[in-house]
Amino acid sequence: MKPSRPIAAVLLLLALGATAARAAPDRFEAGVFAELNRLRSNPAAYADFLRDYRPRFEGRRLRGAEEGEIDILTREGVVAVDEAIRELRREKPLPELAWSDLLARAAADHVAVQSRSGAVGHYTRGQGPGERMRARGGGPYVNEVITYGHHTPEGVVDQLLIDDGVPDRGHRFSLLRPTHRFVGVACGRHPVHRTMCVALMSQTADGSPPPPPKRTP
């Protein structure tokens, strides 16, 4: 039997505001956090969820899954979905991620800027993820992933896993990196793509260098 997962009941446009950097996750961000750990706890089983994407394709166009969600013109179409399914089926369970307030604040800083400017990408005002973490008093040893245009936690994680148009599948690799132990998520409005969601991950809660491995006698 195909596993089921809860679908977010409230659209991101109604649930989120990105005017202030916040640490405690709201309902949508908590949903993304839970979905990330659902993936990591059993990647092979998660592959079945991606099958839901296949009927939504019209050539390379992915139809929006929710009311108000925009259609997305992909580069690879269903080919990238099928590849993600094959890769996930080979993955073993990974440690679940713990929530980090500091990572969430740095992610929210980025959402706050892009929600006003309409910019996309990891850099705004010359600052990337590491600089944003330093400004918050943390370290630069972080990994950031961003999605635009998805209104459900499931859609956010699915887009990162499929990683359409990214040759090295870097977003998928980031979600499945075994050394990641902490994550902070911030989501909000975007003037061009309607919604955006930023996840910052690290081996430590504050982005500081991980402790050296213990020596065996």
UniProtKB/TrEMBL annotation:
Record flagged with keyword Signal: yes
Entry keyword set: Signal
Every SCP domain range: 84-195
Signal peptide start-end: 1-23
Pfam families to which the protein is assigned, alphabetical: CAP
Signal found in the keyword field: yes
InterPro entries named among the record's database cross-references: CAP_dom, CAP_sf
PANTHER family given in the database record: SCP DOMAIN-CONTAINING PROTEIN
Protein name per Swiss-Prot or TrEMBL: Allergen V5/Tpx-1 related
Origin species: Sphingopyxis alaskensis (strain DSM 13593 / LMG 18877 / RB2256)
The organism's taxonomic lineage, starting at the top: Bacteria, Pseudomonadati, Pseudomonadota, Alphaproteobacteria, Sphingomonadales
